[in-house]
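Quick sanity check, Platelet-derived growth factor receptor-like protein:
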Amino acid sequence: MKVWLLLGLLLVHEALEDVTGQHLPKNKRPKEPGENRIKPTNKKVKPKIPKIKDRDSADSTPKMQSIMMQVLDKGRFQKPAATLSLLAGQSVELRCKGSRIGWSYPAYLDTFKDSRISVKQNERYGQLTLVNSTSADTGEFSCWGQLCSGYICRKDETKTGSTYIFFTEKGELFVPSPSYFDVVYLNPDRQAVVPCRVTVLSAKVTLHREFPAKEIPANGTDIVYDMKRGFVYLQPHSEHQGVVYCRAEAGGRSQISVKYQLLYVAVPSGPPSTTILASSNKVKSGDDVRVLCTVLGEPNVEVEFTWIFPGQKDERPVTIQDTWRLIHRGLGHTTRLSQSVITVEDFETIDAGYYICTAQNLQGQTTVATTVEFS
């Protein structure tokens, strides 16, 4: 019986070799149907943990991308540094990548509609060119991409470029001023700037009081010096008022700037502080009447007046006169007094009623009224 069993196993072994073409290992027996073919093992294997990027470590804010290039001679390009020093007379060409580019440059070039500067928009970049430069052109040149929907565009804060260019001119250490004397108003609620800007990056600049004569230190607490703006009064107060000037030294040369009158402002910023007063609130027939509208405000803030009066619909002829002047209110405080006067001659019944004055500045408007009756 055992002989026949061994003979049967041998025949099965030969048959498998004929089918697979491989020799079965002699030390292994063929597995029975349903037998587990995976051998258990006690070998320890470290599980592989997938690497996960730490999202918190990445900066979620959009990265700023400089899009400005400076065009050099022979068609070469370079990214401009934060500050550039060029000789007056040199030409400058700046390009910013983008199909819609906005530009900013020294206001001096816009004020006089200077033909020396040109701004063009090409298909892939914006182009700014300045020729025959002068020391007065010293300032910041910047560009930015624009995101537009129809005719409405906004600045793309992630695509900008800027450079501050010093145009050095012989005999000019300071950026020229259009006048020999300027007024700087000191507001208690905001910074004030004495605009002593230089044309030489390495120049040493100091601030001086005319009387009593002394240097005013830029200590970084009350006053700081910013080469792009001048001397900045961080928290102006009445003790800062007076006449000051700047002194610059560079390359063995020195120069004094124009003088600046610092005036302290007594009235805080905001909509006009307005009052109205009639020369008489009861007027007889044939008499004249004057209605005065008065605003006390900041010295450098303009005020516009508009009137509504009873005879307006009937095109009643009246005279309206607007004036303003600076007044000193003690302790060196300076205020702008703006007034508008409406005069009605030969008073009639149609002139009786409300006289309404509206005063407006950049911060808002104020409306006041008074009545003038027929006596």
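Posting the structure with no commentary besides this: The radius of gyration is 41 Å.
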